[in-house]
Specification:
Elements: H1 3-17, H2 21-32, H3 36-64, H4 67-91
Helix pairs in contact: 2-3
């Protein structure tokens, strides 16, 4: 096991998830119910499953497309979504 990779992945996913819609949805569920353990287990399970899918899809895609191109594509995608979000906010 690569401990440096594990900690880097943990840190990046943790920071990426702070304040995003998943965390806000989990916050809302826990505010509305008494079974916070159920909310935690449901939320954690969903994140684990989506991460598992991302690992397998990422491994499959990396056989066809170079990791550098995947990173560039993801970067371009996020810049475009950010620009579209800003444009939409300024038009409103």
């Amino acid at each position: 096991m690569d401990l440096k990779l594990l900690l880097t992945t943990f840190g990046m996913v943790f920071l990426a998830e702070l304040g995003d819609k998943t965390q806000i949805a989990t916050f809302c569920f826990s505010a509305e119910c008494e079974s916070r353990l159920s909310v935690f287990l449901g939320s954690a399970g969903a994140l684990v499953l989506s991460s598992l899918i991302a690992v397998f899809v990422g491994a499959a895609v990396s056989r066809v497309i170079s990791p550098t191109m995947v990173k560039v594509g993801a970067g371009v995608f996020f810049v475009l979504v950010g620009a579209w979000t800003l444009y939409s906010a300024l038009r409103a």
